[in-house]
Design a protein that fits this description.
The chain is mainly alpha-helical. It has one domain. The chain is built from four helices and no strands. Helix 1 runs antiparallel to helix 2. The protein is rod-shaped. The chain starts with a helix and ends with a helix.
Length: 113
């Protein structure tokens, strides 16, 4: 009788932990995706700021230059923790594959000339 009770409790606890682990992983994946989106948004902001700084009207403006420096520092700081908030490397791998193919094509064109 006690063995049956232990088995039932064990099965119930295992089921609970399986569902709890699934829930945690789902939330962690959501957090990871949102963090990646934040980094992309900051990179886009930095690029936009650089484009504004290069305009003739704002070229050399210290305030915009300081904003650009701060945005780049923020991006670099977030890049340090990329391994922590990135759960999947599929996006990075696809970019690397695409970049390798582009570099190979460019090298082939340079050799032909």
């Amino acid at each position: 009788m006690i063995e049956l009770l232990i088995i039932i409790v064990s099965v119930l606890l295992n089921m609970f932990f399986v569902f709890y682990t699934r829930w945690l992983l789902k939330n962690l994946n959501f957090l990871s995706e949102n963090t990646v989106n934040i980094v992309e948004t900051i990179e886009n902001f930095s690029n936009h700021l650089s484009a504004i700084h290069e305009l003739e009207m704002f070229y050399g403006d210290d305030t915009i230059q300081n904003l650009m420096t701060h945005a780049k520092q923020t991006i670099n700081e977030l890049e340090l923790y990329k391994d922590v908030y990135t759960l999947t490397n599929e996006e990075v791998e696809l970019k690397d594959i695409f970049n390798d193919e582009t570099e190979t094509e460019e090298e082939g064109k340079e050799e032909e000339q």
